[in-house]
Structures are given as structure tokens and as C-alpha cells.
Amino acid sequence: MVTTLQNFINGQFVTPTGSELIDVVNPTNGEVVAKSPVSVQADIDAAMSAAKTAFPAWKAVTPGQRQLMLLKLADAIEANSDELVEAQHRNTGQVRAMIASEEIAAGADQVRFFAGAARLLEGKSAGEYFEGHTSYVRREPVGVVAQVAPWNYPFLMAIWKIGPALAAGNTIVLKPSDTTPESTLVLARLTQGILPDGVLNVVLGTGETGAAMVEHKTPAMVSITGSVRAGIAVATGAAKGLKRAHLELGGKAPAVVFADADLKKTAEAIAEFAFFNAGQDCTAITRVLVQDEAHDDLVTAMVEHTKTLTTGDADDTRNYFGPLNNINHFNSVNAVMDALPSHCSVAVGGKRSGDKGYFYEATIITGAKQTDDIVQKETFGPIITVQKFSTEDEAVEMANDVEYALASSIWTTDHGTAMRVSRDLDFGAVWINTHILLTAEMPHGGFKSSGYGKDLSMYGVEDYTRIKHVMSALDA
């Protein structure tokens, strides 16, 4: 049965006032699994009003009390893992085991981290910095936060949004992607009886809905995970109201492989990190830069291992990765391959997998030039390029020569090489002999066109706070 979804406002599911509905499609077979409303201004106003009304009381809740609520939410997430997995699988076609371990279990763990982080916010030591006066710093929540989450990891990215904001004492209006709303709505339901009404609100809709949220007068801050284009639009909308913006945008991550690396082990790891979640990950390896003398051996090993990373089967237990998320994205990935320059060669993959759904084969391309679109522009699919370099300086130059600066990795057995190159790579994250792995305690975020602000870690929590200086005369 195709269900009609609802917004979650002030602790209750409510039918939006707008009449437009859009299809939510299962990308494994193209079938409609739900109807999602497109919220209009009145719906956004109601959500913002609920968040604004809830903020003073939520701000006054002690960090210890917020911690207990978030810990209860983490327990509820784990207890309802199966329901969350199925809700998300309907919208993404991702492998169920991957959703369970990499999003639901990881999400619960990260909520627990943020629960503890609520009690660890820091400021400058109180003291007499001006004679006869004591100064101290208050770190406060910014207020209502408008947040827009992406479709590639719908549940986990919702956690990355709400976790630090709630820990810091903010209230939220969150919009999930229009193609993947269902796991976020289950999460919203789980907050009932745990979070006070109005603290977390979920509004469904399209990009226009998100734009209206960003430009709404109520939020003090806006946060998005998405494309560079979407990030620019959010930053522009936020600037009109002098709102703070938190942007986690695209990536074009290089893996820099030196000839001294264990090539077989490196090739297998790179293929798995590159094609995980069908490459629909802004930190996924998309460019392999390999020293001249190791190029052929690395490509051979990568192709061999890539052939074992299957997709395209409706039985997701047989797949290493699932389909591309939606028909528009599927078409865009096909267009990238159709426009491939003649000097490029497809070493493996390069076409649709199966005859239904939006599955695409894991693809390795050799012969690309640094100026090619396939090297310079984000594809966000299971496609990687392999290029040669001669020297360490050339490798760094090629790695940094893109507009994105989110993630990168170095593959070498030489400690000095690893230290120098990790220093010189212009990316927010650098892995050495591994890639893509994240932990709640460490920050994640990029530079340049990959945006600004940090997710995860105490840095991520601090992004959702403001600093106030208080000074008191001692003899008053």
C-alpha cells in the first residue's frame, strides 16, 4: 500500500496545508512506495513557530538532563533498528546490512557521543583580565536552526544535523531529501515522549521548501549537507538575513598511491572505499593518483577486485552496493559516461547493471587528463579515474588541483612521505593507508568549495553555539 506521509510539528504528525504530492520511489525497481507532501509557507511557519516557542525552555534544560534524553533516544534507535532499516531501504535500495551497521548502529553511537558532549562545552577561564573586574565566557545555543539533509545517507545525516544542535540546546526544523524522507520520519516518531514538543520538527518538501526555510525570519542558523550548487543557494539565502551557515558540500577525493605501497592490499581497499554506497559519498575515493612505475600493477589489481563488488540484484544480500538513488541522478551518471573523452579508456564497468532500477556497475577509467570533467567535477557515482604521477610534488599538485577540498588519502609505507604529503594536501580530512572511516570524536568537514563548518566531534557541537562575554565589577 502506498502511504501518504505527514510533517512532524510540535511533537505530532500533521497533514500539510499544501495539496501537492510527489512520488517517493524505490530505486531498486522504480515503484512508488509513498506520496510525500510539498510543504508550503503556512507549514513552514507552523514548524518555525513550534521551534521558536520550545526554545526558551529547551535552552534552560541542564546539560545533564539533555544528556539523559539523548541517551534515551539512542536506545530507542537501537531498539527500532529493523523498522528504520526497512523504511530507509524502501527509499534508497541500499544494502540492508549496511544501513543497519553504518547508519542505524553508527547513528545511535553518535547520539551517545553528543549526549556526553552536551556536558563538556568549554570557554575561556574566568578571571580578572581588566583590573577590578571579573570576565567569563558563556557558550550559548544560537536558537532555532533550519537544517536540510541529503539522500545518500538519510538517517545518519539527520543524526549529524540534529545531534550537535540538540546537545548545544538549539531547537530544529529539519527537511529530509524529497526522495528519502521515511527513515527521518521514523526518527521523529521515536522522539515522542523523549524530547519536549517542538524541539525537533520535520518538514517535507522539495528544494523550494528548503529555500523557504532558509529565508524564513525565525532561524538564527542554517545547515545543509548537499551539492555545491545547493550550498551556494543556502549561503546566499542565509546572507539575506545575516544568518550563520554551516555547509558540508561536495567532494572529489584523491587517493595518492606511492610505488612503495602494498599494491594488492591497496588496490582492494581503494576499490571498496570508492564503490561503497555506489560512490554516493562526498568523501568516497573518486581519483586514484599512482606513481608511474606502479600504475599498471595497481590498475590490474583494482580491476580484478572490482569485479567481485557486485550490484544490480533485487536481493540486496548479494550486492556490495545498491542502486543510484533516483532517476535524475541515474541519468546524470549515464551522461557523464556518454561525454567521456576519446582518450579515456574504461578498464571495467561503464554501464547499467540489470534491466530495472537504477543500478550502475563499478567503473574504473584510465587515461583521463587533469583538465577533463571526469577529473574536475563531482560525479557522485561508482566511477573512479586512475592517473599517473612521477614525483611527490606532482602528486600533491594534481591532488589539490580541483575545486573541492573535503577528503583525501595517502598510500605508502614510508613515514616521512606520509607526514609531508598529509601536511601539503589541501583537504579537511587526510587518511593514511585507509579511507572514509569516521569516528564521532573527530571532526569532519572541508575547505574551498566543499564548504565550511565541522560535523561530528566537539568542534561540530561548538558550531551550533555562540559566545557571550560577561564582565562584572568587583566593587559594585
Automatic annotation (TrEMBL):
PROSITE patterns: ALDEHYDE_DEHYDR_CYS, ALDEHYDE_DEHYDR_GLU. InterPro entries: Ald_DH/histidinol_DH (IPR016161), Ald_DH_C (IPR016163), Ald_DH_CS_CYS (IPR016160), Ald_DH_CS_GLU (IPR029510), Ald_DH_N (IPR016162), Aldehyde_DH_dom (IPR015590), Aminobutyraldehyde_DH (IPR015657). The active site is at E248. Its EC number is 1.2.1.3. It comes from the Bacteria. It is an enzyme of class 1 (oxidoreductase). It holds the Pfam family Aldedh. Residues 15-470 form the Aldehyde dehydrogenase domain. Keywords: Oxidoreductase. GO terms for molecular function: aldehyde dehydrogenase (NAD+) activity. Belongs to the aldehyde dehydrogenase family. This is Aldehyde dehydrogenase (NAD+). It comes from Arthrobacter pigmenti.
